[in-house]
Design goal:
The protein contains 4 helices and 5 strands. With 116 residues, it is an alpha/beta fold. The longest helix is centred in the middle third of the chain and has 16 residues.
């Protein structure tokens, strides 16, 4: 789905702690919990990828396919998809669920101090 680049990557349960929690000590990691059967997920992914490309110095985008990683969804108490969680310094700093337009996501990230 969309263009891949170095700061956009897939994660699973085995790689989550090292690629998201630990890595968020040096750069903000936005995690997109999505499912193939979810139309709002498919609509949100290109928006998140565009933001990640534009803000590649400030953020990385990790994508978790929830059907293959239900324990991760449970670990974070996710009830609906898509859900986006931002990790900074190993901690969750913010989240939202459902589709949001690019401007709203940029405002959300700016409020968290992730982007300018």
């Amino acid at each position: 789905m969309g263009i891949k680049q170095e700061n956009i990557f897939d994660v699973d349960e085995a790689s989550f702690d090292s690629n998201v929690i630990d890595a968020s000590s040096s750069i903000a990691i936005i995690v997109d919990f999505w499912a193939e059967w979810c139309p709002p997920c498919r609509a949100l992914t290109p928006v998140l990828e565009k933001i990640a490309q534009q803000q590649s110095n400030n953020i990385k985008l990790a994508k978790v396919e929830v059907d293959d990683n239900m324990r991760l969804a449970g670990r974070f108490g996710l009830r609906g998809f898509p859900t986006v969680i931002v990790f900074i310094d190993g901690e969750e700093r913010g989240r939202f669920s459902g589709f949001k337009p690019e401007a709203e996501i940029n405002d959300f990230l700016t409020d968290l101090g992730v982007t300018t």
